[in-house]
Amino acid sequence: xxxxxxxxxxxxxxxxxxALLLIDVxxxxxxxxxxxxxxxxxxxxxxxxxxxQRTKEAGIPSIYxxxxxxxxxxxxxxxxAHCKGENSKGKPFVELLLPDQDDYFVxxxxxxxxxxxxxxxxxxxxxxxxxxxxxxxxxxxxFFTANxxxxxDYKVFVPSDCVVSNTEEENAYxxxxxxxxxxxxxxxxxxxxxxxxxx
Length: 199
Description:
The protein is built from seven helices and six strands. The protein is α/β, with parallel strands linked by helices and about 200 residues long. It has a single domain (about 20-195), classed as Isochorismatase-like (Rossmann fold), CATH 3.40.50.850. Strands 1, 2, 3, 4, 5 and 6 form a six-stranded parallel sheet that branches. The relative contact order is 0.20.
């Protein structure tokens, strides 16, 4: 369970029962099946953007949990600049979900947002108990992050219209697994009572 703490040397001013995780949304889609995934991802990106706006209004902090693309000298701002560049396939998707100055970010080396990252420590300092997971891919990085969140006793929410996988079938199967095995709430984003979750 998240532990109470007084501060993180001034670096985590937010205190919130709930946090929004945006998983691998800063993405250039430069991989096999990337174009197919991008087609499915664009409408989902609009849904995530709407949810992010609502969470901000409800006082829920946003955390970008993003792949480091195998580069151990990765810098999040450079990743954002690359993925919204003119030559990036992912530019139209990334521009929907650009981080704000007060958002947090965690770079991950593997599938789960918790594996060898500072995510758990950040969530502890935020005093979060509920996690809303969104992003790419529902059957991979979102699933692994949800699993690790469940193992740490967080209440997991995975809005079914805010995650995307390579195929709709794979996405539906992953959502069903998260709902059944990880006790995740897969209610669509518009039905989430954000004020209740963050009170």
